[in-house]
């Protein structure tokens, strides 16, 4: 390993294409821990070139994201190149984005994971220079917390946590019955802003209730979807953030009153409903005006190098 790192990396001349899923974090009680990968994908194509940066962006964020080295995919690629032993001379990056930005659907994690996985795939011995543990560590460092990046990397239903040696993840299989529906409003809410609304301390009873519900959610989401309504109850973050997204909290209340397990998706303002195969059509019709409705599946693959 140290031998390899002491020699500069060799980069492939062919393009690589990486597909990364959207993800929904928290799922109610599993604050900063649970992630669910969803079948809505960004695709990044990257190729080494003689010099400079050629960046193109289509789809979500095309009119808003930076077009230089501050672009999140490019930044993640450069951070990864530094860890691999040094950058290639120049880079062409083409992004095709389907994941909406600032909606709590893990767009920043998808961008970061796509960048790191693409940079690693461009390097001839990239997986020897950066293993999956180091990939999760770098992605978590750039994102600030591991829940969405875990789902974007591994797919499925993920649990993420941090120890002294860094972030860890476990991937579980969601029940095939579960059919996520995501309701996306037209307004954005940055994760940083949403985090600012959380209190410094919470009542012990609320913390205890969340711990129990989070444990129950592992059973409900993997094997026992009829427990999802009770298992998605949260007392630690959703209500505190309500003032920043009243329409989302209102929709969640309406869905839950109808027996549909619904939560804020990540830091919001999107709403995640964990419908089942039988209820998905009915659930998708419950939101009314002003919401873009995505009927999705749990993405089983996570970040994938396509070519
Ligand atoms: N595909 C992308 N390419 C470039 N930047 C991105 C991409 N996805 C997200 N970002 C950056 O991340 C920001 C959104 O991050 P965040 O507030 O965490 O919301 P989200 O819930 O969508 O992750 C965007 O405003 C943009 O700056
Ligand atoms: Mg984010």
From TrEMBL:
It comes from the Bacteria. It is found in: Cytoplasm. ATP binds at residues 100-110. Its EC number is 2.7.1.39. Pathway: Amino-acid biosynthesis; L-threonine biosynthesis; L-threonine from L-aspartate: step 4/5. Residues 72-156 form the GHMP kinase N-terminal domain. Residues 212-284 form the GHMP kinase C-terminal domain. It catalyses: L-homoserine + ATP = O-phospho-L-homoserine + ADP + H(+). InterPro entries: GHMP_kinase_C_dom, GHMP_kinase_C_sf, GHMP_kinase_N_dom, GHMP_knse_ATP-bd_CS, Homoserine_kinase, Ribosomal_Su5_D2-typ_SF, Ribsml_uS5_D2-typ_fold_subgr. It holds the Pfam family GHMP_kinases_N. GO terms for molecular function: kinase activity. Its main location: cytoplasm. Keywords: Amino-acid biosynthesis, ATP-binding, Cytoplasm, Kinase, Nucleotide-binding, Threonine biosynthesis, Transferase. Belongs to the GHMP kinase family. Homoserine kinase subfamily. Catalyzes the ATP-dependent phosphorylation of L-homoserine to L-homoserine phosphate. This is Homoserine kinase.
């Amino acid at each position: 390993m140290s031998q390899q790192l002491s020699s500069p990396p060799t980069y492939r001349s062919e393009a690589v294409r990486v597909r990364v899923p959207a993800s929904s974090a928290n799922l109610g009680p599993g604050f900063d821990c649970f992630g669910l990968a969803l079948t809505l994908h960004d695709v990044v194509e990257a190729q080494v070139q003689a010099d400079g940066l050629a960046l193109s962006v289509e789809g979500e964020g095309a009119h808003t994201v930076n077009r230089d080295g501050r672009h999140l995919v490019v930044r993640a690629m450069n951070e990864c190149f530094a860890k691999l032993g040094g950058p290639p001379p120049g880079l062409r990056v083409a992004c095709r984005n389907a994941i909406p930005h600032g909606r709590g659907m893990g767009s920043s994690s998808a961008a970061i994971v796509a960048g790191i996985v693409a940079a690693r795939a461009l390097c001839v011995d990239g997986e020897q220079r950066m293993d999956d543990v180091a990939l999760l560590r770098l992605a978590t460092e750039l994102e600030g917390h591991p829940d969405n990046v875990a789902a974007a990397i591994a797919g499925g239903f993920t649990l993420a946590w941090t120890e002294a040696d860094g972030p860890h993840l476990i991937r579980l299989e969601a029940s095939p019955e579960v059919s996520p529906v995501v309701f996306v409003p037209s307004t954005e809410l940055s994760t940083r802003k949403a985090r600012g609304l959380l209190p410094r301390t919470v009542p012990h009873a609320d913390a205890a209730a969340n711990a129990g519900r989070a444990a129950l959610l592992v059973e409900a989401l993997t094997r026992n979807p009829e427990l999802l309504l009770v298992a998605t109850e949260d007392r630690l973050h959703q209500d505190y953030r309500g003032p920043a997204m009243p329409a989302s909290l209102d929709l969640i209340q309406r869905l839950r009153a109808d027996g549909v397990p619904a939560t804020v998706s990540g830091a919001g303002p999107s709403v995640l409903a964990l419908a089942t195969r039988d209820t998905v059509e009915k659930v998708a019709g419950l939101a009314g005006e002003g919401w873009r409705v995505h009927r999705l599946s749990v993405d089983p693959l996570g970040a994938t190098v396509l070519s």
